[in-house]
Amino acid sequence: MIILAIESSCDDTSAAVIQDGAVLSNVTANQTVHEAYGGVVPEVASRAHQENIVPVVQQALSVAGVQSRDLSAIAFTRGPGLIGSLIVGVSFAKGLALRLGIPMIEVDHMQAHVLAHFAEDPKPEFPFLCLTVSGGHTQIVKVLDPGNMEILGTTLDDAAGEAFDKTGKLLGLPYPAGPHIDRLAKSGTARFPFPKPKIDGLNFSFSGLKTAIRYFLERNRKADPTFIEDNLEDICRSVQDRIISILMDKLEQAASLTRIKEIAIAGGVSANSGLRSALQELGAELGWKTYIPDFQYCTDNAGMIGVTAYFKLLKGDFVGHDVSPNARLKF
Ligand code: KG4
Ligand code: ZN
């Protein structure tokens, strides 16, 4: 069974070919055009998807050595995401499915981040917990089986990736700032104490941290105009360590409450080197089996869409041509 998967929920246009659950190709075109605006501009993203989608799909087929007539089904991200971006992927999938006379499979982007772990070995065993941290979401998910996931905790305001990106904006770093903060933090020391929010249960909050960082920078720049430049690495390290400690605390609580020891991280922020080592360290201490995705499966990619679609294909879970994208899709 060969699936062509399309991902176009935000600012990455991606296509992948999956054969019997194994990823044969995973091609992503990143849209650098948004850097100039300090964030994703929805209309610009939608237009860039329109330009990228045909070459990206062609490359995914060619890397996999597959012709379009070999395809068994087409999978696409139905949501959540930017509506103008989703429309491009969904319309493309419909057009190709119609021409080839093959079925379509809709995929929830957040479930796909979680199931990205099935693109690689070793694969988590059910039930497992997944901390999904991206630009738009922060979730602790209990995964009972591929089609049965429960959100145990989520953010009450900003997402973890947003905390990185908004901090980066205050520091004058390019968008998305997560990878830049990660790189700078490596040679920094966490000597600036940023507050830890007191939120009950397994939910998160990052907006207080964002405000604290803004005031901290304003205060220090008044006294010393080159404060940011002179302390950039240490500021990055302090912020990054705080974001990681907020995430790891709740993950530890979730593991203890559910008594689950299969623990995964997913989403764009799971590419963060500090978070990756924090998970390994805490996992070794608490006897967890930890799962950290390969970089290509952290940020948005169609490989994860295809792997998720394969689980649905096995159940015959297809959709008709009346399907429409849903920017606020929830599972
Ligand atoms: O999953 P993703 O590609 O897109 C969404 O679905 O949102 O996540 C993008 C987010 C951005 O906020 C970006 O800054 C963050 O992931 N990110 C990182 C790193 N790489 C990407 N954050 C921290 N450290 C990184 N190395
Ligand atoms: Zn994502």
What does this structure look like?
The protein has two domains: 2-114 and 297-314, 2-Layer Sandwich (Nucleotidyltransferase, domain 5); 124-292, 2-Layer Sandwich (Nucleotidyltransferase, domain 5). Helices cover 44% and strands 19% of the residues. The chain is built from nine helices and ten strands. The protein has helices at residues 42-64, 83-100, 109-115, 160-171, 178-185, 207-223, 227-258, 273-286, 302-314; strands at 2-7, 12-19, 22-30, 73-79, 104-108, 128-133, 138-145, 148-154, 262-266, 289-291. Helix 8 (273-286) links the parallel strand 9 (262-266) and strand 10 (289-291). The longest helix has 32 residues, at 227-258.
Q: Any chance you could write out the topology, listing elements then pairs?
A:
Layout: E1 2-7, E2 12-19, E3 22-30, H1 42-64, E4 73-79, H2 83-100, E5 104-108, H3 109-115, E6 128-133, E7 138-145, E8 148-154, H4 160-171, H5 178-185, H6 207-223, H7 227-258, E9 262-266, H8 273-286, E10 289-291, H9 302-314
Parallel strand pairs: 1-4, 4-5, 6-9, 9-10
Antiparallel strand pairs: 1-2, 2-3, 6-7, 7-8
Helix pairs in contact: 1-2, 3-9, 4-6, 4-7, 5-7, 7-8
The protein binds 5'-O-[(R)-(carboxyoxy)(hydroxy)phosphoryl]adenosine and zinc ion.
5'-O-[(R)-(carboxyoxy)(hydroxy)phosphoryl]adenosine (KG4) binds next to helix 4 and helix 5.
